[in-house]
Amino acid sequence: MNMARTTPISRVRLTRRQRDRAILLVCLVVVAIGLIGLARATGWDEVRAQIAGLSAAQLAGLLALSLVNYLFRGMRWHLFARRLGLGTGFGQNLRHFLGGFAMSVTPGRVGELVRMRWIGRETGWPVERTAPLVLIDRASDLAAMGLLLALALTLSTGMIAGALPVAALAVAAAVVVTRPALLARLAIWAYGATGILPRLFVRMRRAAQSLARFSHPATLIFASVLGLIGWVAEGYAFWLLLGWMGADMDLWTAMAIFVFATLAGGLTGAPGGIGGAEAAMIALLVARGVPLEIALPATAVIRVTTLWFAILIGLVVFPHAEARSRKGAHVVETG
User: Fold this and answer.
1) Which cellular component appears as one GO term in the record (predicted)?
2) Domain for residue 39, yes or no?
């Protein structure tokens, strides 16, 4: 009887896992084909020469700037966890934050919800009580990137078509998520309009009400500063990379291209923004007069030193975070 009940659920989980892997594989194949095609059209020798021209110190510098991004955003995660009242320490929160990077390539990055599982095991808090942590963290990223994009567009030497609406959309989404009453009303309206998944909308409303803990002005300002520093570090790395490869571009234009491409990739819903971010970055660089033999390797290198470096860190931290959460679950149960 038990086998009959559990087998369909296991099959559903297996099917979803296979589907997620298939989506990721398709995205990777499409990106690989596109990059290979561009490299062949440009010339393999030029692309290889640009990448080989980077020194170990320069690559280390790019990775170090990415670490600045992860550290400052990890500090922001810790700030939000403290405001939520989880009672977890900085090392514990940083472990959850970095370990979640291993799931960045799941569709819509929903796999990063594994952080909620770790927190639940170690603290006993249910998902609906910790879900606001994910919402406010994602909203803070949108706000920081939207504000940075608007600032970069203001200070850059040229405009990017469609960038201002994207910046406005990012900031607007962040405003909605950080307004508990507004988000709760949207959840009620959505349920009234669809009439489906009542439990989901009840949880959304409860999570929205819990966001009030983060609405303190000092918390939002400090979180915004941490997020801005983090994303400026990666945008600055992109500008340095372009300069090292011989592209003549001002800092703020490079910053705008990097942030816009990252946001555009995220809007596609593809795992890690794979495909959309690369396409947008190459197209914008070429439109700004950067030769394809520079735009192509620059895009590949910056994605490796940002997205894939984060995933690598996540894969290293993930087993440790999983083991510690299991140990924490045992302590919670026996306590």
Assistant:
1) plasma membrane
2) no
